[in-house]
Amino acid sequence: MAKQRDKVFPERDALVAFIRAHPGEVGTREIAREFGLKNADRVELKRILRELADEGTIEKRGKKISQPAVLPATVMADITGRDSDGELIATPTEWDEVENGEAPKIRIHIPRRPQPGTAAGVGDRALLRIEKLDDSEGAVYRGRVIKVVDHAKTRVLGIFRALPDGGGRLVPVDKKQVGRELNIAKADSNGAQDGDLVSVDLVRSRGFGLASGKVKERLGSLASEKAVSLIAIHSHEIPQAFSPAALREAEEAKPAALKGREDWRDLPLVTIDPPDAKDHDDAVHAHADPDPNNKGGTIVTVAIADVAFYVRPGSALDRDALTRGNSVYFPDRVVPMLPERISNDLCSLVPGEPRGALAVRMVIGNDGRKRSHSFHRILMRSAAKLNYAQAQAAIDGRPDDTTGPLLDPILKPLYDAYAIVKRARDERDPLDLDIPERKILLKSDGTVDRVIVPERLDAHKLIEEFMILANVAAAEMLEKKALPLIYRVHDEPTLEKVHNLQEFLKTLDLPFAKSGALRPSLFNRVLAQVKGHDSEPLVNEVVLRSQAQAEYAAENYGHFGLNLRRYAHFTSPIRRYADLVVHRALIRGLGLGEGALPETETVETLTEVAAQISVTERRAMKAERETADRLIAHFLADRIGASFQGRISGVTRAGLFVKLSDTGADGLIPIRTLGTEYFSYDETRHALVGSRSGAMHRLGDVVDVRLVEAAPVAGALRFELLSEGRAMPRGGKRPGARDAAMARAKAHPGRSPRKQDRKPGKARSGKTGPGKSKKGKS
User: Fold this and answer.
1) What is the pLDDT of residues 678-730, one digit of tens each?
2) Which of 261-277 are b and which e, b meaning 16 or more Cβ less than 10 Å from the residue's Cβ?
3) Residue 741 pLDDT exceeds 60
4) DSSP H helical segments within 507-647, as ranges?
5) Of the candidates 496, 493, 497, 477, which has an alpha carbon nearest to the alpha carbon of residue 485?
């Protein structure tokens, strides 16, 4: 037994056994209770747990502890094959093999009478409910199909390019298939015209020449760039058309009346949104708190469109909304979660029009901390529709005809309230990354006009902070009522990622002393040290990559990035299904009338919903990024040979990814084109290093490049590097040619060493197709 101050502690094996018996369910408190440890023993217990975590024996997820990489009870998985008994085998869709090792296998249990929508096969993606399994063939989980989300793809999506003989070629839209065109005979073209987006069934290819395909469906014309978003919509199977029943429900919906609501039509709530916003679902108001016991405090009100009044659980509108999960935003269009009758009309807080809303009234102390809150189902009337720049200009002394009358009674109190809540925000010290977000502006014909980085105004921060306050209030209220809800959660970085970050920061002589609990402030101290320096973009990018990805979950483990213990999306039920669930739960918990969360909704059922909408959120983000890539590739396609300045945004064994400074376009510089020596991948430095010269190309370096090739349909660019590499810092180890050859052998097992690998110094040549653009973490 380990001893500390004459106190007998449980053996490490006993602690691990208890944690394994309750994966993800126990924390320090539960462990102490199980083994009869007192408060004075917590320091020693935490030390032992920290050692176990550092060894990788256990893993901390928020306040809960489990075995490393233990799968949750509900998981999205891809069915990859069958075992020797013919049973289906799946692996988790979201799995980082670098971080967690080989993905665990899940054996699929097929009931005799499967429910509709649960019949799965090899290649399908499905939502599974799983349990641990001892298995001699390597499957460690047994899974039951809850729902098949995506069936195996047997078709290729691409652009039809007509040939004189009446047939054509298919140009694939997938970056991985760039250069792999398909031949389509005239008889198999199905009437496709040049520029049509089509889905094609593969025909067995011959031993030579192009593989063949048969047009199965014409999905639209891409004669203009205005239709570029169609590619992402169809390739990711994002639903566009609402069911007839959902459209009928939307058209038959009647505006919310005063019955069952509080009358707040005289409160001058205002909406503040981007200038191109089509729906306005949140409104704000603030005024000084007259309570003498809260001197210097403020009262902030956030009102959100009452979507739950129109979209009832189990209705056709509800089913369509859940399938979508969220709205998807492209430069040229929006694919909404709800029909326009709901999102752009009945639930858009139009100035002067009565609208139903769910409002939260928050009392804030002069220290910026929320003292209390209350939720209300109201009938409101927006006093004005403003955009961010318009509101900011008024505060900065440039009011217009709309904002002039609102400046003193409405806008100044809002900004005064923001100044107060910002105090608590600064004290909370959430993760403060500075990653510029670019916006593509289109011309009237749908082509790219320019790419801008919108200025970050106090008006943006004001709305953001008020929405965060409202989201926290919603989570707190539902926890108080002991009701199930969907949280917005963000786990802390894994121990391995923190270690990798520490090793990287050492190469910049930046300390990252982790002691005690991991907090965003640790990362913020590093970011503050590089503020205004050349390394600022690099460090921001590497810190971002060290973070986990936010998601939805019915179990709470906090939001690390915001440094909040409980957080739930409440402020945009028009475009996020999670918010709609939270609205329904509030209506149920507070007895606010119709549209409440059904009693049948439990933590278990909401776990399934959370897993599904986390997937649709990632699908939307990927589709939006790919569309931006394609638009920019179209924009640059006629500038082959031109030179640009950019920054290295990714370093891999395949080469360098470069993000252009003016457009934000991503492209690849293949490693074979870097020069007359071999370059080896230095994972710690995030760099490629020359074996002879020690020249180093590092993540974040500013470089000059030449555009060599553009594939607009796939959104892929290939560059040639014009800049010299930086010198290797003192004490750095230069990889030799043998190191480079070994690295390639590891990356491509079974491939014999190339002639160049045996004779270092030989110049490289050869053409390569454009590569896959690096994608940022959401």
Assistant:
1) 888 888 888 899 888 888 998 888 999 999 999 888 888 999 999 888 776 65
2) beebeebbbbbbbeeee
3) no
4) 520-529, 536-546, 577-590, 603-636
5) 477
Kindly report the CA angle at 543 between 428 and 96, in degrees rounded to 5? Answer: 115
Q: Which of residues 342 and 4 earns the better pLDDT score?
A: 342
Mean pLDDT across the chain: 84
Helix or strand or coil: residue 5? coil
Strand order in the sheet with 298-305: 262-264, 370-381, 354-364, 298-305, 282-288, 270-273, 384-387
Task: Give the list of residues 6+ apart from residue 259 with CB closer than 8 angstroms, or none.
Answer: none
**Greatest mean pLDDT range, 77-86, 423-432, 654-663:** 423-432
Tally the residues of the chain.
Answer: 778
Kindly give the pairing relationship between strand 125-132 and strand 74-82.
Answer: antiparallel
Please state, in angstroms and rounded to a whole number, the distance separating the CA atoms of residues 767 and 254: 62
Helix residue ranges per DSSP H, 386-436: 388-395, 412-428
Report long-range pairs for 389-392 (Cβ below 8 Å, ≥24 apart): 389/275, 389/457, 389/459, 390/275, 391/272, 391/459, 392/457, 392/458, 392/459
> Residue 754: beta bridge partners?
none
**Using one digit for the tens of pLDDT, what is the confidence trace for 285-319?**
999 999 999 999 999 999 999 999 999 999 999 99
> In sequence order, what DSSP letters do the residues of 321-358 get, joined into one string?
HHHH-B-EE-SS-EE-SS-HIIIIIITS--BTSEEEEE
Tokens 């918990």, residue located: 589
DSSP element (H, E) containing 503: helix 495-506
Q: Report the pLDDT value the prediction gives residue 176, as an integer from 0 to 100.
A: 67
Distance CA 727, CA 735 (A): 14
φ and ψ of 212, to 5 deg: -110, 160
CA angle 767, 772, 776 (to 5 degrees): 145
Q: How far apart are CA 251 and CA 314, in angstroms?
A: 18
Q: What share of the chain is helix, strand, coil (3-state, %, to 5)?
A: 30, 25, 40
Contact status, residue 238 vs residue 334, Cβ threshold 8 Å = no
Tokens of 553: 């979950």
Cβ atoms of residues 747 and 643 within 8 Å: no
